[in-house]
Structures are given as structure tokens and as C-alpha cells.
Design goal:
3 helices; 76 residues; two-stranded antiparallel sheet; 4 strands; alpha+beta
């Protein structure tokens, strides 16, 4: 049986934002593209800030204006 311990929160970085098309070297930032008009916008980051920001998740720590999207874990 594996046990994992949370080490730190992981902010939403370029690795979470970039989608690589198969068999090409082209990349596109999928999550911030409005699917109706194809224009880059602030969503879903603005919505995520309401409940996944350091202001919400880390209120007693230095605020960096990040949106936390995951958690770094180590196997014990």
C-alpha cells in the first residue's frame, strides 16, 4: 500500500496551460481560449481565483496572486 504526503500546493503554470497537438510541434493555450470566438480571455482563471487562489487557500502566507491547480506529493 502506498501513502502520499502533500508537500506543497502547485500553482497553475505553463505546463497546465499548454496543449501539444499530436504529431506536430505546435502548441496552443487551450484553457484561456473562448471556444465561441477563438479569442484569448481571462477565463477560467478569473473564476478559479475565487476559490483556488493563495488568498483563499493560504490566507496566512505571503500573497503572490497565484491560482493553485494541483498539489505536489511524495510517496512515504
Amino acid at each position: 500500500m502506498f501513502k502520499f504526503q502533500g508537500v506543497k500546493l502547485c500553482s497553475r503554470c505553463k505546463a497546465c496551460l499548454v496543449h501539444v497537438f499530436e504529431n506536430t510541434k505546435n502548441t496552443k493555450k487551450v484553457p484561456t481560449i473562448n471556444q465561441e470566438n477563438g479569442i484569448a480571455g481571462s477565463e477560467p482563471n478569473e473564476t478559479l481565483k475565487e476559490f483556488r487562489s493563495d488568498k483563499v487557500l493560504r490566507p496566512n502566507k505571503k500573497q503572490q496572486g497565484k491560482v493553485y491547480f494541483g498539489h505536489n506529493l511524495v510517496c512515504q
